Amino acid sequence: MEEQKLLIKKIIEGIQEKKGKKITTVDMTKIDSASAGHFIICEGNSTMQVSSIADSIREYVRENINIKPFGYDGYQNSQWIVIDYGDILVHVFLPEYREYYKLEQLWNDAKLTDIPDLE
Predict the structure, then answer these.
(1) What is the pLDDT, as a whole number, of residue 34?
(2) Is the separation of the CB atoms in 4 and 21 below 8 Å?
(3) Measuring CA to CA, which residue among 113, 102, 69, 104 is closest to residue 88?
(4) In which band, very low, low, confident or very high, does the pLDDT at 1 lie, cut at 50, 70 and 90?
(5) Which strand (E) or helix (H) includes residue 15?
(6) Does pLDDT of 53 surpass 90?
(7) Among residues 71, 70, 84, which one has the least CA distance to residue 35?
(8) Can you spell out the DSSP letters for 49-66?
(9) Mean pLDDT confidence for 89-99
(10) Which of 14, 27, 108, 110 lies at a 20 to 30 A Cα distance from 102?
(11) E strands in 1-119
């Protein structure tokens, strides 16, 4: 469990490194049907920022705690990139795609934690 908390912390720092906004962690560990234990959701203002946030997460986590994702997808159009760390899935959205898919509401019985934006 401690390794998971550390990974979540480093993912968030990697997002903040590139000024990702509206970071929300979704704790689904108490939901039997959930596909993962945690979602970390954030957004960038442009496709370029979305892809640079995703790159930052992958590099920051690898450099700091030597964990590589199992996979990632979405770089083709960079509107929604998902990074798979097994029990933790990171979603980096353009704001309109985040609004459209509303992942936070899909798991309305999960524990949501909003991380304040860094200025």
Answers:
(1) 87
(2) no
(3) 69
(4) low
(5) helix 2-17
(6) yes
(7) 84
(8) HHHHHHHHHHHHHHHHH-
(9) 98
(10) 14
(11) 21-27, 38-43, 71-73, 80-84, 88-93, 111-115
Spatial separation of the C-alpha atoms in residues 2 and 44, rounded to whole Å: 28
**Which CATH architecture does the domain made up of 2-109 adopt?**
2-Layer Sandwich (3.30)
Residues in the chain: 119
| Structural contact between residues 110 and 28, judged by C-beta atoms closer than 8 angstroms | yes
Q: Specify the pTM.
A: 0.96
Where are the chain's structural domains? 2-109
Contact 43, 98 (CB under 8 A): yes
Residue 119 clears pLDDT 80, i.e. is over it: no
Does the pLDDT value for residue 33 go beyond 80? yes
Question: Cα–Cα distance between 93 and 51 in angstroms, integer?
Answer: 9
